[in-house]
Amino acid sequence: MAALNVEGISSATFYRHSQLYLQPTVLSLWHTHQLELIHQLVLRSGEVVVGGDMRADSPGHCAKYGSYTMLEVRSNRIIDVQLVQSNEVGGSGRMEKEGLIRSLEFLESSGLSVDAIITDRHPQVQKYLRENKPSISHYYDVWHVAKGLSKKLESLGKERQCEAVREWAKSIVNHLYWSVASSSTGEEAVAKWVSVANHVQNVHQHDDWLFPACAHGDLDSDHRTKWLEPCTKACERLADIVTRKQLLADVAKLSRHQQTSAVEGFHSLILKFAPKNLIFSYRSMLCRLYLAALHFNENADRSQRVNAAGEPIFSLRFPKFKKGGYSVMPVKDAPTYKYVDELLQLLFTSVLQDPAHYQQLNTDIIVPPALCSDFQRPTLSALAVQSRFNRSSEP
After folding, report:
1. Residue 132 lies in a domain
2. Average of per-residue pLDDT across 335-361
């Protein structure tokens, strides 16, 4: 505040107040809120289906923190967030598996038994659940598979003699979603999925008894998309992509009812509380994640706005990745911030009155050593502090 000649607290004072009062307040409210959610899920009938995914704190492959989110898809609530530092597990590539393990262990220790989990296709996650949690049904999120498929179709459409694939790309991706949503088993989803290789050639009868014929009716003669000619490069290459062994195995495990799109929405929300272009301490990062979870859970069931005639309101968005394409999004009611009032009430009525009790929550958090602690630090006396232009001529 020196530039404005205004009195203000120093940064050291701010961080001290944050550590002594603000962080314990956030930790206390989140733990109370989390235990209430888990208690409700334990008493609720039916399966407990969760969606999990990791978010890195920085773009690229050298993240310091990885936050693993666990969302209960039926209630659409964040029930756990685990923060992992890369040097705890030997590298950022191992943080997702560790976050999953910690989250499952916490839920189990809290008395909540998970029946099914929906994740992306992370190999370490697949192996861990297959070998250590066979009682939990593991499904894949459709969006992650569709994203990879879209990239392959786009790349194929750029090749010579394969330009016609571009016109089919969106329909093929939509067919993947339909194949999964309209099937009762993984085998049926695979049968419907591979039928697209025939459909693009104007062949609508198939050899698989699980899906012997296309479900659409008669097609008009002026079909908008040009049919692919059999035995052409475009047709053969497209069939190779559609019938890849690994893709078929993934389609069989795609989730048919719930997805993890809400988890991706929560990760976008975290950017407002913990931007990726800023660096935070371990405790500060954890508290910001909890604040984002409190905000998300309070506003998870916002209603869609309606106009004067009572009709729902939608908006058009043009995401950059769609390259001119658009998305139709429902316009929701404005978010509320009741959790802020709860934080303030807890701070002034309890934390400031008995700070030692709440500060123990902050002290109990085990902070991993700094990343630079793995390196040997030389002493200043052992360094030759001199300019490169002032060195002797001797090698």
Report:
1. yes
2. 94
* Model confidence pLDDT, tens digit, residues 201-212: 989 999 989 999
Dist CA 2 CA 89 (whole Å): 43
Find out whether 215 and 188 touch, Cβ atoms under 8 Å.
no
Q: What is the pTM of this model?
A: 0.88
Q: Is residue 330 assigned to a domain?
A: no
* Buried-exposed string 55-94: b where 16+ CB fall within 10 A, e elsewhere: bbbeeeeebbbbbbbbbbbebebbbbbbbbbbbebeebee
Contact status, residue 340 vs residue 29, Cβ threshold 8 Å: no
Q: The tokens of 329 are what?
A: 């999004």
Helix (H) or strand (E) holding 267: helix 261-273
Residue 329 main-chain phi, psi, to 5 deg: -120, 135
Do residues 190 and 170 both lie within one domain? yes
Q: Could you write out the DSSP letters of every residue in 269-291? A: HHHHHS-TTS---HHHHHHHHHH
Alpha helix stretches (DSSP H) within 56-164? 86-89, 95-109, 123-132, 142-157
CA gap 204, 172 in Å, rounded? 15
Predicted confidence at residue 8, as pLDDT, reads 83
75 and 52 part of one domain = yes
Residue 179 has pLDDT above 90, yes or no: yes
Q: Are residues 75 and 203 in the same domain?
A: no
* Identity of residue 345: Q
pLDDT digits (tens, 9 = 90+) for 54-112: 999 887 777 899 999 999 999 999 999 999 999 999 888 899 999 999 999 999 999 99
* Domain CATH number, residue 72: 3.30.420.10
> What's the pLDDT band for 317 if we cut at 50, 70, 90?
confident
Res 384: pLDDT: 61
User: What domain count does the chain have?
Assistant: 2
Query: Structural domain of residue 355, as residue ranges?
Result: 45-141+257-300+341-373
Q: Using 50, 70 and 90 to split pLDDT, how confident is the model at 391?
A: low
Are 166 and 127 part of one and the same domain? Answer: no
Q: Which of 266, 264, 260 is nearest to 298 (CA)?
A: 266
